[in-house]
Every structure is written in C-alpha cells, then in structure tokens.
Structure prediction request, 77 residues.
Amino acid sequence: MLAYAVAMPWLLFTIAGLFFWAASKVLRFAPATTGGLILVAGLGNTSFVGLPMLEAFYGVAASFLTLPVWWYLLLGI
Prediction:
C-alpha cells in the first residue's frame, strides 16, 4: 500500500504532463504556458500529497471523497 502512495504523485505528474503537452499542440500554447500548466497541475499540493495520502490512510473505500477534487482539477474551476 505504501508503494501506491509513493507512485501516485509521479503518475499524476506524468498524466498532467502528457495531457498539457497534447493540449498545447492542439491549442498552440507558448512553451512557457505549457510548462506552467504542467508544473501547476502536476505538482499541486492536493494532487501530489493530499489525494494519495487520503487513499493510503483510509483505503480505496475513501476514494469517493476525492471525486470532487478530481473534477475540480480536470475542469479547472
């Protein structure tokens, strides 16, 4: 279970990097904008520390608590 908590931040950072890299190609973002989006979305405290720790401490059953945060991160609202 500890390996999951360690791997999750890196997985989220990789997903954010791939997503914003692809989005930047389609939307023609400047390289600085792309880098900023990858860093902010990928290394945000909530995704990097909060969500994996919540699931590590409370188990997969507590994953429903993270759904509003995931939608917030995906939609950017």
